[in-house]
Design brief:
Helix content: 55-70%
Number of strands: 2
Largest sheet: 2 strands, antiparallel
Shape: globular
Strand order of the largest sheet: 1-2
Strand content: under 5%
């Protein structure tokens, strides 16, 4: 590695950049802007105009034009490693964990103590793979699902990109609904209804996701402060009523494991995009620090806010004003009711709570833009920034419709996504640790390998392990619309079975694949 110096903003510049002069990145920059030709239809003047616009966006507005291509060693220059902590903390410091925690007491019928213990244990457990996989970004420069090509192959990985797109889009819809309902709850829907609120939250998130990596990290660096203050104020205003918990029977195994599966499903999908947020960090970034920042930044606010949500959910049926707020605007309505005694200041705090969703939504939408590019090989040529507009339109349209039965949609959504995410983690981590011995050089020695389908693994072993585990996962599912025969006795064991069985199946299948296919 060449010696490097760090500037005041924590960005490392290497002597190699200075020696090559101002023209060094020109050709590479043109390659990164490749995609203009898709719209130019061979017209050189139109191509030149679009490239000029992209150049202005990149240089003057700081918009990230690099898509999901691996970030070269000399472009991985960020050394402010604490940024990864503030990013995860801001993504988790909002109304979403509170809303999810309410499901434990309102929908699953758990008492506050039991719901809190489930939240604590399953969050601490399911955050581990996210923290570990986030450390891969600085060492490979690869987005998470680009790195997955080394496991699933260039083409089979598209199935999991599609699943991840569905998951992230679902989270984005949930974020938009929560934020929109919070804005609506400020004046009981008389000034801004939930539909208008959804549009406002989605458009604000578009601004951040459009600009890309650096803007996202700068925004998340400070966004958690007003969000945390607003949550503390709301808790202080309604805290005296949190002790009015509903009396419920002792928790059953089915309730504990099923709600635990829901909590794990909230956390595990982050693993499929973990390295997306660390690819520009310096290759020598200390893995333990990156993992620790990720783990604490994600687990700490999630646990505290989910437990708060469980407490709010347990008290809501016993407090008429909270119940009325819940019926009109779900979790956001309850928080608005908690803040009602504070008058105009309480309404202001409710607005801040609504805007806290932008931190989570903008980061999720940023990853969606990258996933769109990865979905099909030819989509690499379409600029990432265009997909930010596409996903915003999708989120607004679906969120407006889904808001009418929010809690049922949330429970169904979270209950399903944990299964595929657990299988994906089991296969990818097993391949890296067992098959490759944790050697990152296997991904980076040949810089062109990531995009050469004929040299990457076929992906049959990974696909077989991921699909093969479903044979036992389905009987272990415990959902509103389906309960498997095993789950009927034990509760939901789907994500645990998916992780263990996919990892166990992958090892022999991968050795067989290498022997038959030679790669």
């Amino acid at each position: 590695m060449t010696p490097a110096t760090a500037d005041a903003e924590g960005v490392v510049s290497s002597p190699r950049d200075e020696e090559e002069g101002p023209n060094a990145g020109r050709e590479q920059g043109r390659k990164e802007k490749d995609g203009a030709g898709v719209y130019a239809s061979g017209d050189e003047s139109r191509t030149s105009s679009l490239l000029s616009i992209l150049d202005v966006l990149e240089k003057r507005a700081g918009v990230e034009l690099r898509g999901c291509q691996p970030v070269p060693w000399d472009k991985r220059t960020v050394t402010q490693y604490a940024n990864i902590f503030t990013l995860w903390f801001s993504m988790s410091c909002n109304l979403l964990p509170i809303t999810t925690g309410m499901v434990g007491t309102l929908s699953f019928g758990l008492g506050l103590r039991d719901a809190s213990l489930v939240i604590l244990f399953f969050t601490l457990l399911s955050t581990i793979p996210v923290a570990y996989m986030c450390t891969w970004g600085p060492r490979t420069g690869m987005r998470q699902l680009i790195q997955a090509r080394f496991v699933y192959g260039k083409y089979f990985v598209s199935l999991f990109i599609l699943l991840n797109l569905a998951t992230l889009t679902g989270f984005s819809i949930v974020d938009s609904i929560i934020g929109g309902q919070a804005l609506s709850a400020v004046s009981s829907g008389t000034t801004i209804n939930a539909t208008v609120g959804i549009v406002i939250i989605a458009l604000l998130s578009l601004l951040v996701s459009f600009c890309g990596f650096r803007t996202l990290h700068k925004y998340e660096k400070y966004a958690w402060v007003p969000a945390l203050l607003a949550i503390v104020i709301a808790t202080g205003c309604g805290g005296s009523d949190l002790s009015r918990q509903s009396t419920v029977p002792p928790a059953t195994v089915q309730q504990v494991l099923s709600f635990g599966g829901l909590v794990a499903s909230f956390m595990l999908p982050w693993a499929a995009l973990a390295s997306d947020f660390s690819t520009y960090m310096h290759p020598t970034a200390p893995p333990f620090r990156i993992a620790l920042y990720t783990y604490i930044g994600l687990a700490l606010p999630t646990i505290l806010l989910m437990v708060l949500g469980a407490a709010i959910g347990g008290a809501t049926p016993n407090i008429p004003s909270w119940q009325a707020g819940y019926e009109s605007n779900a979790a956001s309505g309850v928080l608005a009711a908690m803040l009602h005694p504070a008058g105009g200041f309480g309404r202001f705090v409710t607005v801040v709570l609504a805007f806290s969703m932008v931190g989570n939504l903008s980061a999720t939408m940023y990853s969606i833009t990258l996933n769109f590019q990865m979905l099909l090989p030819w989509l690499f040529r379409v600029q990432r920034i265009l997909f930010s507009i596409v996903i915003t339109a999708i989120v607004i349209g679906v969120a407006i419709k889904a808001a009418s039965s929010f809690f049922t949609n949330l429970e169904n959504f979270l209950g399903l996504i944990g299964y595929w995410a657990a299988a994906f983690i089991g296969v990818v981590v097993t391949d890296h640790v067992w098959i490759r011995g944790g050697d990152f050089a296997a991904y980076t020695e040949d810089e062109a390998l990531w995009d050469e389908g004929k040299r990457l693994p076929m992906g049959w072993a990974a696909l077989g392990a991921s699909l093969g585990c479903l044979g036992l996962v389905v009987p272990c599912m415990y959902q509103i619309w389906f309960t498997g025969p095993i789950a009927a006795r034990t509760g939901d064991l789907g994500f645990e079975v998916a992780f263990v069985l996919s990892a166990g199946l992958y090892v022999p299948l991968r050795y067989l694949e290498k022997r038959v296919c030679g790669r």
